[in-house]
Backbone:
């Protein structure tokens, strides 16, 4: 039974898991959907009430009947490397690949249907509320008046993108930014704005959840630092224990979201309280493992290769 | 009119990262010139920054 990893060749974080799978003797196929069609070949046959599917790449062949699990890591767009790539070819290839994978019975980390929903920041906030996390007051709006009203109520608020920087321009940074009520909010009418009450933090927390296993890491923030991803604080990530209340909420959240893997970001305030900021369903973990030594790649590999899902069975993508 | 959120975007020079490893199709992971898997060199990966959250932001919406 084979583990299928959908990711790009450049993804060295995936390498960490591939190496673990090799050590365990677990068969693995690494495939970038961008290489289909072309380097990779697909065939799915639906006839006489039955289904057979095969994938091949770099001399390896995977039958859908022998598929143990799928890890959706950093896949390229289907057909992106094709000789005559186009939006239409990407759509056709996506249909063929994911339609075939959905036709089988396998475990997903994470199922794309659940991943799509889990990426939505407004949904994350609702799920976080329902899971018992502390969530800073937040507004999404296209109304300049409501945006100004929110900023006047909370005085110090941050603005951040829900979907990340504009795609296609890797030189553009869009960090979470602290603003005040005297900002010019007229541009809110031109695009939904995400405003959130600023949490004055003393540390960033990254909590990586792999099925039932939790790995929390803490990085001391500089005074008045807003976005921990930007700027060098001179501090490194250190492993910390997970407060019982937070751990319970994490398990409730991932069960609700149907996720086998999730990376949570929290702000630790001056009293040591953890505030939920967001949950990245495919968040990076390589930098955390390298700095803390936490065995996250091993946990991912174990989940992907295990025969029985145990508690993780609920994450098969049935939601 | 410019969307409000983009008022806080700014250009930044991309670091020139030369990754001294390449993908090995038989091993299905990246290897160093001497054949060792790149993941065996922790210091190199940290220096390259290719496992960080902002590295993901440049190419992907999950970080």
Residues:
């Amino acid at each position: 039974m084979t583990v299928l990893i959908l990711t790009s060749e450049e993804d060295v974080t995936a390498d960490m898991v591939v190496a673990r799978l090799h050590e365990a003797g677990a068969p693995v196929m690494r495939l970038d959907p961008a290489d289909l069609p072309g380097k990779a070949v697909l065939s799915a046959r639906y006839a006489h009430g039955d289904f057979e599917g095969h994938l091949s790449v770099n001399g390896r062949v995977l039958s859908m009947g022998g598929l143990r699990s799928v890890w959706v890591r950093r896949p390229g767009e289907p057909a992106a490397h094709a000789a005559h790539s186009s939006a239409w070819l990407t759509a056709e290839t996506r249909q063929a690949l994911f339609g075939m994978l959905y036709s089988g019975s396998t475990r997903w980390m994470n199922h794309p249907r659940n991943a799509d929903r889990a990426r939505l920041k407004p949904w994350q906030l609702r799920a976080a509320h329902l899971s018992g996390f502390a969530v800073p007051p937040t507004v999404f709006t296209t109304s300049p008046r409501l945006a100004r009203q929110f900023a006047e109520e909370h005085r110090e608020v941050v603005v951040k993108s829900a979907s990340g920087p504009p795609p296609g321009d890797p030189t553009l940074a869009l960090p979470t930014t602290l603003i005040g009520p005297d900002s010019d909010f007229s541009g809110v009418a031109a695009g939904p704005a995400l405003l959130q009450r600023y949490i004055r933090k003393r540390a960033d927390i990254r909590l990586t959840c792999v099925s039932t296993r939790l790995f929390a890491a803490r990085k001391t923030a500089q005074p008045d630092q807003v976005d921990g991803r930007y700027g060098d604080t001179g501090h490194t990530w250190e492993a910390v224990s997970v407060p019982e209340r937070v751990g319970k909420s994490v398990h409730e959240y991932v069960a609700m979201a149907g996720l086998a893997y999730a990376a949570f970001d929290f702000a630790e305030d001056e009293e040591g309280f953890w505030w939920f900021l967001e949950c990245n369903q495919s968040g990076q973990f390589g930098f955390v493992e390298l700095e803390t030594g936490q065995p996250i790649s091993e946990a991912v590999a174990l989940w992907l290769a295990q025969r029985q899902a145990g508690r993780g069975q609920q994450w098969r993508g049935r939601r | 009119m410019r969307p409000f959120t983009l008022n806080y975007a700014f250009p930044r020079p991309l670091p020139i990262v030369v990754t001294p490893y390449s993908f090995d199709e038989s091993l299905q992971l990246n290897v160093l010139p001497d054949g060792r898997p790149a993941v065996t060199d922790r210091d190199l990966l940290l220096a390259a920054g290719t496992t960080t959250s902002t590295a993901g932001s440049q190419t992907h919406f999950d970080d």
Q: What stands out?
A: Chain A is about 30% helix and 30% strand. Residues 17 and 301 of chain A are 6 Å apart (CA to CA). The helical segments of chain A are 12-24, 87-103, 112-118, 121-131, 144-154, 244-257, 286-292, 296-305.
